[in-house]
Amino acid sequence: MIAGSIPANSASLPAAAAFILLTGIPFGLRTLMLDDTTYQILGVMSLIYSLTMVGLTRRFHGNLVTTLGLSKQLEIRNRALKESLQTREMLLAKTKESARLLHGAFEQAGVAMAIIAPEGDILRANQAAADMLGCEIPEELCGRKVIDLTHPDDRPENRRLFALMLRGRIDRYSVRKRYLRSDGSEVWADLTLAAVRDEEGELQYAVGQAQDVTEQQNLYSQLLHRSTHDPLTGLINRSAFEEQLDLLLSSDSTGQGHILCYLDLDQFKVVNDTCGHLAGDALLREVAHLIRQKIRRSDLLARIGGDEFALIMQDCDPESAGKIFEEIIQTLREYRFPWSGHIFHVGASIGAVAVHPGDGLSLHDLLKRADSACYAAKEAGRNRYRFFKEEDESLTARASEMGWVPRLNWALAENRFVLFRQEIVPVARDEQSEMNRFEVLIRLWDSNGDLQPPGTFIPAAERYNLADVIDLWVVQRVVGWLSEESPHASDTCAINLSGLTLSNQQTLDKIVALLEEHPQATRRICFEITETAAISNLAHTREFMRQLHELGCRFALDDFGSGLSSFACLKQLPVDYLKIDGLFVRDIARNPVSQALVTSINQVGHAMGMKTVAEFVEDDTILRRLREIGVDYAQGYGVEAPVPWLLGTGEPAGEVPQGGLSRPPEMEVSREPPSQPHSQPSAR
User: Fold this and answer.
1) pLDDT confidence of residue 489
2) According to the model, what pLDDT value does residue 680 have?
3) Which terminus of the chain faces fewer neighbouring Cβ atoms within 10 Å, N or C?
């Protein structure tokens, strides 16, 4: 019974000991007190057994307590382990989800992505990378060397940058480079490559991301080409030509020397004035093609002005150059230009100068000498060439001073200028306007009864400080007509102001005073200033515009887009209209770059609350394209050709009569005034 109670009572040591002692000790003492030896031995054994059972119970109790403690610890540890396993399962699930998201992002990314091994192999690529490089699936790229997919011209830089990453010098780099598609074509991309390293800093792999910028790069290349090339003929322009000539002068060439020449077309003005700019443009393209066929492959041909070309002939002697000049002149003399039922003859005058890098002549000196020789060739009878002689410079200067300055002064004194007008019409078909808008254009009615276009005399007026006097003359005539002849009409006149006027405070003050005297005319006048002139005389221009804006006049920024700081200029001047440079407008039907530029200018103008006007609108195709773009107004021969408006006396021009006017005193006047081939005329 005592032995059987141990397991039952061992949980409580005092209870177990009490049970054993109360049960075993009385029994032992009682048997010990009997006289029978056997019972006495049994009593002793009972006492010993009871004490032994107490000890066993104590040990059993200790083991039980230990076992229970271990069980609780085990339970705690099991619970902690379970929580740990749950946490790990959650982390594993999140890791799998993150991996799934990363995998999806990698595969579905809109930009090309790839993982590159340290050896340069593609370990993995996404579909965008495959599409960019002309592959059907990404697996076609795996295992291929990145260097093999790189354009040969870009491989040296690719190797250099990746070597720096391998050596731990850089962890990331970005570069614009060319790749080769599977069909051999080029694709431009902006690449960013980032290194992934281990704890020792060794490259494990690199993650690359590439954005296809081929279209952007092509547009940039076109814009760069446009900045150095004439869009009409494809030849380099004046600035690029002068840059090449300057490089030639700074070279250490010790050869036989070079030849610089100017070529000026004869009778081009007849074609341009008779048939319009489209005919003139077509003729210039044909002439450029004919000249290219006659010069050497190493020669550099440029178009430097309206009907002017320039040529650099490297390592060429005057005798060899002369033979080429004769071929060019003969070819142009025999050429016939057909247009609208007319057949036109053209010719060329060529001025040349020998170039030796060590002779000390500057770029300006050489250009001036070639120009003078070209003028001398014209004076000698046209359709010929001439190498520069010292007397040519004095001939050019004398002809310019004695020809144009007195003629312009005489025209001002005798009111021999005639004002034409050219309509500016809304582009939108559904727009109805009761207001007639037109630009005032100036012509010179010479002593022979011929009307000279502004390109023949405005450059001389600007060069010899007469442009502001002519501007004031025009403003006076227009204000007088608006105030007296048509005070209640709704016509709005656009008047050009030259850079010389904007820089002459006295002339500006006279214009302000005149308009203050005739307030009824101010709201019907819009002054046109060129972007270049505005920037060159910013302080005067801004104050002048502020004063006239207060009187009610409006302003248009002419030839917008031709300068380098076009959009910056807009923020500083209170402009109402943007007149988009006709050089861009006339090409929009066939040149996507021109269309993009016109669209951008139109959007910027509208965003700034301005109306836009497109110049050089030559046909309905251009007009339709402008309508699609959203340009507000159009002006050009495709809308209306300039028509006579006011004589210098202020009377309506009607049909301008021919002849019947006196010759300027004390001078000889040729029927075709000397041209100013290298000045840029104002748009008048």
Assistant:
1) 66
2) 35
3) N
